From TrEMBL:
A GO term for molecular function: DNA binding
Domain of life, per lineage: Bacteria
Positions in coiled-coil regions: none
SUPFAM superfamilies per the UniProt record, alphabetical: ssDNA-binding transcriptional regulator domain
Gene Ontology biological-process annotations: regulation of DNA-templated transcription
Protein name: DUF1818 domain-containing protein
InterPro entries on file: DUF1818, ssDNA-bd_transcriptional_reg
Organism: Prochlorococcus marinus subsp. pastoris (strain CCMP1986 / NIES-2087 / MED4)
Length: 123
């Protein structure tokens, strides 16, 4: 299963073994394990719920900044009501690797919804 748009891609390939999810934006890509992808999904849902709670109270041009830490992930959403970017940091509890991702406007929202659809369609 894969989704590819201008400047981003999301791929699930269980034949790859341990690192079966790939997220790529612009000129970089990272492979995730299933449990890392699941934790990212849960973090993004939590962040989206926070955004939905305040969205109706925001003026169109009002700047927002939301931060969530849910180990091993940290997420920071910045932008406005109808367009935001997302910075994600992963710190492995196994001390195997750490990385940072940046999803610019409008990639962030599109990629979020595709990750949500991908995870919820599994099983």
């Amino acid at each position: 299963m894969s989704f590819e748009e201008n400047n981003w891609r999301l791929i699930k390939d269980t034949k790859k073994g341990k690192f079966c999810f790939l997220i790529g934006v612009n000129n970089w890509a990272i492979e995730l394990q299933k449990h890392e992808f699941e934790l990212l999904y849960k973090l993004l849902i939590k962040l989206n719920n926070q955004l939905l709670e305040i969205k109706d109270e925001l003026m169109d041009e009002e700047f927002i900044n939301l931060e969530i830490e849910q180990l091993p992930w940290y997420a920071e959403l910045e932008g406005k009501k109808y367009g935001w970017n997302l910075r994600l940091i992963f710190e492995s509890s196994e001390q195997t690797r750490s990385f940072e991702m940046y999803w610019p406007i409008p990639i962030a929202e599109n990629l979020f919804y595709e990750i949500k659809k991908m995870w919820e369609s599994m099983d």
